[in-house]
Amino acid sequence: MEEVFHLGVPGPSGNENDTFVSNDIIYKVNNLLNCQGSILCLLEKVMCHNNLFYDTSYSLYAFTGFEGRTVLPVLQQNLVKNAEPATTVEIETYMAAIGFEKQGNEGRFSNGEYEVWDLLPRNVLKDAEGDVFIVDAEIRFHR
Description:
Strand order of the largest sheet: 1-2-3-5-4
Structural class: alpha+beta
Mean pLDDT: 92
Strand content: 35-45%
Order of helices and strands: EEEHEEEHEEEEEE
Radius of gyration: 15 Å
Largest sheet: 5 strands, antiparallel
Distance between the termini: 36 Å
Shape: globular
Low-confidence stretches: none
């Protein structure tokens, strides 16, 4: 576990990820909290994210954890530089442009095939050119 501090400078952390930034990469040490402890659930979510938001795709970098107790996947993602949080209107406009409809709760969208939620300004960035990037989302594939 102590090796994760060699990944880069600690960045913002959230409910499920501790982040480390190095050059053009952000590493996310995932605690599997949003996947009820299931690595398979996380990998399915990553696959859905990569299908929908390929410009912020994830790759599995490594595993870490505490010997005999936990396994924590380490994901890597290209860093969106010179960005700021997108507004709710920008998020809704972007999601509509890629075929999603807004659902009842703020930050929740569906296209009939995927349900995506937690698309709030803290998880969606806008760069200097106004391009929107989904960097963290909860995603479920409708079976």
